[in-house]
Known about the structure:
The complex is a heterodimer. By secondary structure, chain A is of the alpha/beta class. Chain A has helices at 21-40, 64-67, 74-82, 111-119, 144-155; strands at residues 47-52, 55-61, 101-105, 124-127, 137-140. Chain A has five helices and five strands, in the order H-E-E-H-H-E-H-E-E-H. Chain A is flat and about 55 Å long. The two termini of chain A are 33 Å apart. By secondary structure, chain B is α+β, with helices and mostly antiparallel strands. Chain B folds into two domains: 15-22 and 156-277, Cytidine Deaminase, domain 2 (3-Layer(aba) Sandwich); 26-139, Alpha-Beta Plaits. Chain B contains nine helices and seven strands, in the order H-E-H-E-E-H-H-E-H-H-E-E-H-H-H-E. Chain B has helices spanning 26-29, 47-57, 98-105, 113-118, 133-139, 159-181, 217-239, 245-248, 258-266, and strands at 34-42, 70-75, 83-92, 121-126, 188-193, 198-204, 274-277. In chain B, the strands form two sheets. Chain B has a four-stranded antiparallel beta sheet with strand order 2-3-1-4. Chain B has a three-stranded antiparallel beta sheet with strand order 6-5-7. In chain B, strand 2 and strand 3 form a beta hairpin. The radius of gyration of chain B is 30 Å and the shape is elongated. Residues 1-11 and 240-265 of chain B have low confidence and may be disordered. The A-B interface holds A 42, 64, 66-72, 76, 79-80, 83, 85, 88, 91, 94-95, 111-116, 118-120, 158, 160-165, 167 and B 1-2, 4-5, 210-214, 219, 222-223, 225-226, 229-230, 233, 249, 251, 255-257, 259-260, 263-264, 268-271, 282-284.
Amino acid sequence: MSTQEETQLTLPIDIKNDPEYNTHIKFMKEALNMAEEAYQEDEVPVGCVFVHNGEILCRGRNKTNETKNGTTHAELVAIDTILTNENISQRKYTPDVFKNSDLYVTVEPCIMCASALRQIGLEGVGRPDGRSPPVPITVGGYCHDEAIYMLRKFYVKENVNAPNPKKKANRILKTNDLVLEDSQD
Amino acid sequence: MSGDCVKERTNTFTWENMKVERILTEEETRKLETIDVFTTTIEPKLANKFLKFIQNHIPKINDLEHVKRVRRSQTDDGNVNKGIELRVVLCPVDHISKEELIKSLESFDPAIIQHIQDNLAIYPVPKHSPYTMSQFNEWKSIWPISYKRPTTQDEELTGNDLEYIKKYMEIAENEARLAQESNNRKIGAVIVNPQDSKVAAIKGDMTHSLQHPLKHAIMNCIEAIAKDTAESYKTISSTSPNDSLHHKRKLDESGITSDAISAAEGGYLCQDMDVFTNSQPCVM
């Protein structure tokens, strides 16, 4: 996931033959857990983990409603847990740690986060869908259906934090086109 | 650091060398784009009848209201058919197949259907309504179009606007200097609520002082405003004990939550606020 070639896409993806398949699934599940936490708090359910030397460096989930800050997307929240504003001299890591880290995120990063990821020097981004990304190197397809399910179950419920909440009593959560390992609801 | 971020300005900012220009919108800078349409010719004496007919028998043209239905031109075909040619727009080619089109025209007048078929041709016409006069003048050369000056088009900046901009740009510039004094990049930002001209936040770049590559001036302003907003939410919920954050999420009878109401009162995040900064914002 960390080569020097820019904007290289490993598509179409053949994730079944990926020797690191189990590792990617493990970290994607962690990202999905963060998304679930956001879902439980009525936030748009996006979650992520940064992985450094095979271990989770930090976790983040969308907090835009809680913080009243539209820029507190999962990726930026996770980065801030490492680069805290307080006790800067006692931080465990410098910003350079991200140059040798991988990101696992449940949705393709938005353009703000993609730019932020570039600026912290991240090279690899794992992502559940397989479309053209705005980030340097991505691998997609892991936990694809689980990630879709997460967003669907959010968008069938009424978003009380939307500027103009819509009534959605008639919406039904569609799952028959998804292959889910275990039912989460 | 990537190229996304604006490098520190080399020239010194002064009001004397500054010129305020409105940045043109996408509509205003758009180049000519075309869409292919089926057209045919019609004898002038049958034109009115034919236009009425196609209005009822051919799929309506959406989003092409600016395209004139008929183009009138002089023909000079070896002095034999010299006269006026009327070429009529039928519909975009992606709306209907040629066979379907001919079929729907058949009931018009059997005597001239052959003429219509023989003169059926695909022409490009401007896809978008022209937003500026210069677009209109350029685009009308490929097919006649109409031009309505948009009511939303901004007028030139007035003296009051310039005073408003100057006031807050000076604050942003000053904040940029302060940032530079702390070894940060020389970038400052001010976010103002234009409703009451109140400053919501003034922050400079802190990428060096916080050792955090994402602490850009504008991001710092947004964060400061968010903290203020979150504080005021806490005050509201602590003054009304029955209205804890958890209870606030419940829908009331009208289907609107108290959360949504207070969000509307306090503004939704930084919506409709003005930002002043001395450096072009990065993609983030």
